[in-house]
Known about the structure:
mainly beta; disordered C terminus; five-stranded antiparallel β-sheet; seven-stranded antiparallel β-sheet; 14 strands; single chain
Amino acid sequence: MLFDGSSFDAWKPFSFQWINPDDNQRQIQWKIVDGDAMQIEFEFDGKRRKQFLCTKQSFGDYRLHLEFQLPGEGSGNSGVFFGPLYELQIFNSSGNEKLGLGDCGAIYQIREPDVNAVRPPGVWQTIDLLYRAAKIGRNGFMAEKDAARVSIWLNSTLIHDDVKLSLRRNKYAAFPETPMSPIVLQEHGSPVKFRNIWLLESTSTPDQDQ
């Protein structure tokens, strides 16, 4: 259980270099709201600053579940990072007939969702993500057949079906493929809420997966 509404024990601040070049944020500035949810607090110690949230633990192959709620005003811009900084976009794209690489459910700048399954702002929505990390050889290289893969369900609708993630063309592509990586929640200037976040690590072998 990564977040059950009671504490941030599983999390720590995470800052990209261009947001916080000194990497000196030690206190979590997110807050618990509504009794069981978390939300970014934009002002901390009298100053407005940005802060992502990152799990203290890193993971390999896993199933991730979380719930989010878009605010009633604005775009509701946020995201969930899985693997070595692949971003699942969170955005108010309800009612959009055509979805792009920056809409809700997109793997940001890499692949748009197969279907628009996002609900309107103000209601809780679910993400279920099945991730298989890339297999890195002893020589430090990755064969194409061993690339990371992901399947994603938004509100119980499959929007990415066993997608291969070998193509790194998003703005985080400088981060190398690694067999272990944390989960990161993005703060992008919008009071998106999260709750009920849990992760189940996989202990199966590749043969068992088949």
